[in-house]
Amino acid sequence: MIQKIESIQKKLFDGNEEQCLSEVFEIGTQKIKLIDFYNSPLRELKKEIDEESFNTLIQENKFNRINNSFVEKYTSENELEIHYLENNDLIYLFSYGEYQPGRYMLFLEGTWQSLYKKVNTIKIDVDIEREETILLFKISICNLSEKIIKSNISDDSGGFTRRTVNLYDEHQNKVERGVNYISPIKYTENVITIEIGKSAQFVLKARCEELYNSLFLDFKGVNFNVEKNKTYYFQMEYLDSKSDMIPFTI
Which residues of 1-22 are buried (b: 16+ CB within 10 A; e: fewer)? Predict the structure, then answer.
């Protein structure tokens, strides 16, 4: 079940896309960037909450459902696509898109609170290896729940990494994300099935690259501003679970 905290539409941005990518939006105590939710279309929320709650959210916010030959999507009264961001038990809803040629608009459409514990329970293990200039983050997700998990853990756009990976400095303070960019959205999903008590493994690759006279640890879909010869901590957060903070050196 979910409950509505606020559903009054608030304009957050009106201008060109490049400027929007660099903006930091303060919503309550949260600091949020476009890149944090751009690759989280509302249809993906169906995998996180029950059908009744999802339908209530659509109706209360008066979103429009659009079906075409490619993908299901939801739009606002301004015909901008709806995206979401989960933070602990809160669900933030945003609409964003090109309202007029060259004019991009971003709205906070509402905030909801989840009132139930999610069914999926998982354990995330991470092992880090280095191959020449590439860091390999080997992820293992074990299904500890009483339900088969079906999920997309390797989408082509880099959205999965963007939603789940966090980096912390030597004092375990969260590292700000670096140069903002958005990978082209592809609608091909690689859905995996994890049976009860079984695990799925996959690898995230990253390399250090110099951009704009700064050094970045660059994953597909997200990058972090780092410094050489310093220790950082990698953590993955997925399906309401977190891995341990795993140390590594740039």
Answer: ebeeeeeebeebbeeebeebbe
pLDDT in tens, the chain (250 residues): 788 888 789 999 999 999 999 999 999 888 899 988 988 999 989 877 888 999 999 999 999 998 775 778 999 999 999 999 988 789 999 999 999 999 999 999 999 998 765 555 789 999 999 998 899 999 999 998 888 887 766 555 577 888 889 999 999 999 988 755 554 444 445 667 899 999 999 899 999 988 777 899 999 888 999 999 999 999 999 887 899 999 999 8
The upper half-sphere exposure of residue 25, i.e. CA atoms within 13 Å in the direction of its Cβ, equals 20
